[in-house]
Amino acid sequence: MTFEIDAFGTIVIAVFVLFIGRILVQKISFLRNYNIPEPVVGGLIAAMVAFALYQFAGISATFSESIQKALMLMFFTSIGLSASFAKLKEGGRSLVLFLFCVAGFVLVQNAVGMSLAKALGLDPLIGLIVGSITLTGGHGTAGAWGTILESEHGIQGAVVLGMASATFGLVIGGVIGGPVAKFLIKRHKLATEGAHDEHDDTPAAEESAAFEFPRKTRLITSNNAITTLGMFSLCIFVANWMTEVSKGQWFELPTFVWALACGVLLRNFLEHVVKVKIFDRAIDVFGNASLSLYLVMALLSLQLWLLADLAGPLVIILLLQMVTLALYTSFVTFKVMGSNYDAAVLAAGHCGFGMGATPTAIANIQAVTNTYGPSHKAFLIIPLCGAFFIDIINAVVIQTIIKFF
């Protein structure tokens, strides 16, 4: 029996699950100490309950895809609206170094997946599916490339396999980021837990990066909220229109990329041409709210029973990918980025979109900084890298590899 939940019901359930995650993180020291994001905790509990209901009672639910898509587009729009060209320039050398770390891991991830697949007697392209297609690319990339691999390369069940792998990545990416950062911070004595709570070190709004202080007070009037909602709506409207216009064309891109790009253009046009001061705090609040709800809904919608259908070899590949990511971020990303506190937070963020998605990466670094203190560099670099560059890097690598098979 399958229940269909409408948009309002989906929001109610998502908020309830998010509150459960928040309570569990507050009450369970393990979750709090290892900086597991609240949306991941609540969403994972809900997904496990859904799995049990499906397995033992044959009950499942489908949630509103429209509201989940809208929240995802709002999140990526908020990144675009927060991306001032001045901040992009501020990223400078650190952003370039981090991009090299990310690009290097995409290559490592595919090498691990394809070599293990071949060693286990599977088609190497299956290793690519259980590589950057799903773990770096996420569910959207999994669906797009899965269809191509099924129709053009004869990989049966590529879409289902991709969705299951992306499911695993989304969960694990949100689980291992905090522990990796905690290990690095403790081992190198980079920060003291809770020390930053003794004073308010929040910078002025124009000096902070997107999503940097989600728990600080946001003084927003109705006029600010209406103006901000108007900017979000304009960006998403244009993104949907451009998706239709570009369909089948050489410049075809996913809707979220158009939303993000529109946000960047609108922000910098208003800021540098019209000379309008952008109210970043309102954008921050809209973005953080959509981020938390989107992550919960994504986990609510995941069919964990697909993982139960994976063959043993594929589970082995996924587990080794997890170990590889933890080692890479600890000994490569951390070292390249300077072996300091900012580098540890960046490592947590890299875990987020190395086996999940940009929202997971943001949630990871928020969880770490809520415990150990702010990291302006991480909140500057992670959104820019995750939104602007990682999908481009991943697409180029995947396309190049597939040409040889």
UniProtKB/TrEMBL annotation:
The keyword Transport applies. It holds the Pfam family Glt_symporter. It comes from the Bacteria. One of its GO terms (biological process) is L-glutamate transmembrane transport. It is found in: Cell inner membrane. It is a multi-pass membrane protein. Keywords: Amino-acid transport, Cell inner membrane, Cell membrane, Ion transport, Membrane, Sodium, Sodium transport, Symport, Transmembrane, Transmembrane helix, Transport. Its main location: membrane. GO terms for molecular function: glutamate:sodium symporter activity. Coiled coil: none annotated. One of its GO terms (cellular component) is plasma membrane. The chain crosses the membrane at residues 7-25, 40-63, 70-88, 94-113, 125-146, 158-181, 225-243, 282-305, 311-331, 343-366, 378-402. Belongs to the glutamate:Na(+) symporter (ESS) (TC 2.A.27) family. Catalyzes the sodium-dependent transport of glutamate. This is Sodium/glutamate symporter. The lineage of its organism: Bacteria, Pseudomonadati, Pseudomonadota, Gammaproteobacteria, Moraxellales. The gene is gltS.
